[in-house]
Specification:
The complex is a heterodimer of chains A (about 450) and B (about 325).
Chain A lengths: L2 H40 L2 H35 L1 H34 L6 H30 L5 E3 L2 E3 L3 H5 L4 H29 L4 H36 L1 H7 L11 E3 L2 E3 L4 E3 L2 E3 L2 H7 L20 H30 L8 H9 L3 H17 L2 E3 L3 E2 L10 H28 L1 H15 L1
Chain B lengths: L1 H30 L6 H12 L3 H18 L1 H10 L1 H23 L6 H29 L9 H6 L5 H23 L5 H31 L4 H6 L2 H23 L3 H20 L4 E4 L5 E3 L7 H29 L5
Antiparallel strand pairs in B: 1-2
The chains are: A mainly alpha (about 450), B mainly alpha (about 325).
Chain lengths: ~450, ~325
């Protein structure tokens, strides 16, 4: 394996792994906080048990997310030293702040996990909230740093020199808001659907249905609200990308020729050699509308971009299709869910709806990963858009392929163990909580 | 602002060494505990470091962020020439961090515990060893930025007698810190006695490996003796460390626990100061005789200003909260 490809693969793998864990660590605390609040307000034991059950999941995911994040902060230098040499001081501001946010999150998590019966109950609840809020802040800051790579700002690039560096301006680059918003909603959607789906499965199997129904409802509301808002944020992102990174937008839609008006392609097979797309459904003028808010606007195709600056079209296009396709599906599920809630029909009787949620367990994360493929692969061949090529940033050390194999093995085994642990946690719910739950029922 | 940032960097490295080190040490102690006592050690350890271990490892993140934002040249030089030991240390961090959490949060306690325990113990040892190797390599003067072959560029920089000796020295210091910490975290007289024995054992090991560091330095032609004994600060910190060593043994035998921690922390701080003061503000010594200095390679002014501000702001938020965490979960002395 070529060192450059190995470095890119290792980075992609590390990020792909970290993203899932950090999203769970970022979103679950909010579910916990709701359940915890309900326990404090209603004294219904089931909410206390649910909070505790979820907090164990959070502990597992947080630790995994924290170590994979530590790994990433080193990996930036291990794999891309020439990038970090220049970029570090420019896009470092969000990382400096993220350090603080992450630290606070870790402290708050210590309080939360070990604070049962030791802290004032509202202070305890508050520490749980702090975990969520600081986690969310960390997420936004890290995405702001990534946004800078798509939309470099805060310096003047003169004859290969990075002058007049302004880290604040770099942090508030043009892409930070649209990317961070899209990512936060995606995190809530993906985690919400995954959690709701797991509890839906348990309801279907009729195990501790009361417990799982409470859990399902909390997660599903978060998931469905986020899924409904996501298309709006997607629209902001699309218009933003069209303005700043026409090559990425063209690759997303496999638009080889500049067109006015430009059609939206759904699906299709991309032939990168002949620069054609076959078998796609075309919606006339729709891409013009999505990119510029006008059905007749011109959309820049790849023909207006030098060939050596083309991102890999097929991967970007397919990933984009996956993201949008799943997003639409989750949107539909959300609409159905709210309709049924509105009609006040008991959920346990709608087994098909629960099955739909079970089906959706992995979908949110698939869309999330696909979205990151669009962002990252769509930016290629640049590591800093328009400024530095990715291949110029890679480490001079040979043999990165071995490093890639080792870390792949580690990440794969970690994924297996975490899945296994979660399976065991869920399996043990009846044993751990049955007694408490019957007591809780009597108390009410 | 440069001074503020450098102060924070030194503080983060020191705290990571003391707190994170004690954390690695806990795994090392477990490794050197006889099988019949292991579950007792694990229990004490879990209560002692469970609530704080995540926070302890944040100091590494803070240090690395300060380096890559404020001193990118130092960060990238380390990343390139110490790629292999850094990667091994990272594998260790990943393995021990996850194993520690997994073994507690696995809902079913069965044979998997065997695996988690193994991973936790060995990776704690390896992580501390490589942390020390990396620290040793930075000042060893073996890193060769002009190297043309793989071995000189990527192996010889860290695989030398001095760096490896510093690695083992670090392992024993971590074990020592952990043992001292654990003494105060148990109320059972039996466990207390065991941890006191461990602390003595690790202390002797630290003295032995410390001597080895000096021998290795001689062999690798590193002027360690000059650094330590020819500067007033180096000399006085070594004298202070030695005095605290005597005091520490006295208190160990007496069984006083809380003062012990402060003394142990003080002692390790003095050792770090003695080794690093002489070449401060140089952070990396190169084979060519040049050195990479914190003051000379600091990033642009605005960046350092922003970083310093973020650190000051962060510490206002973090330190009280962190202090309360340690206070709240410490074992009350009988």
């Amino acid at each position: 394996m070529d060192d450059f490809i190995a470095a890119r693969s290792q980075m992609a793998l590390s990020l792909g792994f970290h993203i899932i864990f950090s999203c769970i660590g970022m979103v679950m605390p909010f579910f916990m906080a709701v359940s915890h609040y309900k326990w404090l307000k209603t004294n219904d034991e089931v909410y206390k048990n649910l909070t505790k059950a979820w907090s164990k999941g959070v502990a597992i995911f947080f630790a995994t997310g924290a170590v994979s994040g530590t790994m990433l902060s080193f990996e930036l230098g291990l794999l891309w030293p020439k990038f970090m040499d220049h970029a570090g001081p420019i896009f470092g501001m969000p990382f400096s702040l993220e350090g603080t946010a992450f630290f606070i999150e870790a402290i708050a998590l210590g309080f939360f996990l070990y604070g049962w019966n030791k802290l004032n109950k509202w202070f305890h609840w508050f520490t749980g909230m702090v975990v969520g809020v600081s986690g969310l802040a960390s997420g936004i800051l890290v995405v702001a740093a990534n946004a800078w790579m798509n939309s470099p700002a805060g310096f003047d690039f003169v004859n290969g020199q990075y002058l007049n560096i302004d880290p604040i301006q770099a942090m508030f680059n043009k892409a930070w808001f649209s990317q961070a918003l899209h990512m936060c909603l995606a995190a809530f959607t993906a985690t919400g659907f995954a959690v709701a789906g797991v509890h839906a499965l348990m309801i279907l199997r009729n195990r501790n249905a009361y417990f799982h129904l409470k859990a399902f409802k909390i997660a599903a509301v978060f998931a469905c609200i986020a899924a409904l808002l996501q298309p709006l944020s997607g629209d902001i992102s699309a218009k933003d990308v069209a303005k700043r990174q026409p090559a990425k937008l063209a690759a997303m839609e496999a638009l080889y020729k500049t067109e006015k008006p430009a059609p939206l392609l759904i699906g299709g097979i991309v032939n990168e050699k002949d620069k054609t797309v076959t078998g796609a459904i075309e919606i006339p003028g729709a891409l013009s509308f999505l990119a510029h808010g006008d059905f007749k606007a011109e959309v820049k195709g790849l023909d207006q971009i030098p060939e050596n600056e083309h991102p890999p079209v097929a991967i970007t296009h397919y990933a984009f299709q996956v993201m949008v396709g799943i997003g639409t599906l989750l949107l539909l599920i959300s609409l159905i869910y709210f309709f049924i809630l509105f009609k006040k029909k008991p959920l346990t009787e709608k087994r098909w709806l629960l099955k739909l949620f079970v089906f959706a367990i992995p979908l949110g994360y698939l869309a999330l990963e696909a979205g990151w493929v669009v962002t990252e692969v769509g930016r290629q061949p640049w590591i800093i858009y328009g400024i530095m090529h990715t291949k110029d940033a890679v480490t001079p050390m040979p043999g990165i392929a071995y490093s890639f194999y080792i870390f792949s093995a580690i990440y794969v085994s970690l994924s297996i163990i975490v899945t296994f642990l979660l399976y065991r946690q869920i399996k043990m719910v009846p044993v751990l909580y049955n007694q408490d739950e019957s007591k809780g029922n009597q108390n009410r | 602002m440069k001074e503020v940032v450098i102060t924070f960097l030194c503080m983060a490295i020191l705290l990571y060494f003391l707190l994170g080190g004690a954390d690695f040490g806990a795994g090392i102690i477990e490794l050197f505990t006889s099988t019949k006592n292991r579950s007792r050690t694990r229990k004490t350890m879990y209560h002692a470091i469970g609530p704080v271990w995540e926070a302890n490892h944040m100091w590494l993140i803070i240090a690395i962020v300060i380096l890559f934002v404020g001193f990118p040249f130092i960060y990238t030089t380390m990343s390139v020439y110490l790629h292999i030991p850094l990667a091994i240390m990272l594998i260790g961090i990943i393995a021990r961090g996850t194993a520690f959490v997994f073994r507690h949060y696995d809902a079913v306690k069965d044979d998997m515990q065997w695996l988690y325990n193994r991973i936790f113990r060995y990776s704690s040892f390896v992580t501390a060893l490589f942390l020390g190797i990396i620290a040793g390599s930075l000042i060893s003067g073996h890193i060769d930025a002009q190297a043309t072959d793989f071995y000189t560029a990527y192996i010889a920089g860290w695989l030398n007698w001095f760096s490896v000796a510093v690695g083992f020295f670090t392992v024993s210091l971590c074990g020592f810190l952990a043992a001292i910490y654990l003494i105060g975290e148990t109320t059972e007289a039996y466990d207390k006695r065991r941890f006191i024995e461990k602390a003595k054992f690790m202390n002797v090991a630290a003295v032995v490996f410390g001597a080895m560091v000096f021998i290795a330095a001689q062999r690798d032609q590193i002027p360690l003796i000059d650094w330590v004994f020819k500067s007033n600060v180096g000399l006085s910190s070594i004298i202070l460390a030695s005095i605290s060593l005597v005091l520490l043994w006295y208190l160990l035998i007496k069984g006083k626990t809380k003062v012990l921690r402060i003394l142990a922390g003080f002692q390790v701080t003095m050792i770090l100061l003695a080794i690093s003061y002489a070449h401060f503000p140089n952070f990396i010594r190169l084979k060519s005789g040049d050195a990479i200095s914190l003051l000379e390679t600091a990033g642009p002014e605005k960046t350092i200003y922003g970083l310093g501000l973020a650190l000051l702001l962060g510490s206002i938020l973090i330190l009280p909260f962190l202090g309360y965490l340690f206070y709240k979960f410490q074992k009350k002395e009988e």
